[in-house]
Amino acid sequence: MGEGSPHGDTDTDTVASEVLDLLIKAHTGSGDARAVPWSERLHRTHADINALLAAGARFARTYGPAAPSC
Questions:
Q1: Which residues contact 54 (CB under 8 A, 6 or more apart)?
Q2: Longest pairwise C-alpha distance within the chain
Q3: For 9-18, how does the pLDDT look when each residue is reduced to its tens digit (9 = 90+)?
Q4: Helices 12-28 and 46-63, axial angle in degrees (round to 10)
Q5: Chain centroid offset of residue 4 CA
Q6: Phi, psi dihedrals of residue 28, rounded to the nearest 5°
Q7: Which of 10, 38, 49, 63 has the CA that lies 20 to 30 A from 23?
């Protein structure tokens, strides 16, 4: 996501973090969820993780760069 990626730039990491924050807010119903603290939450469930990853994948397929041709 960062500058080392062919799709990255100086703002990519910040934007990605903000998108993850919004996804977590939507899935948890919390008005103040943040990705980094959420990732360190000890009592998150497998279902919590799967739901967030699935939402992130849907977002990436919709708004992310196209997959490179092989």
A1: none
A2: 41
A3: 667 777 778 8
A4: 130
A5: 18
A6: -100, -15
A7: 10
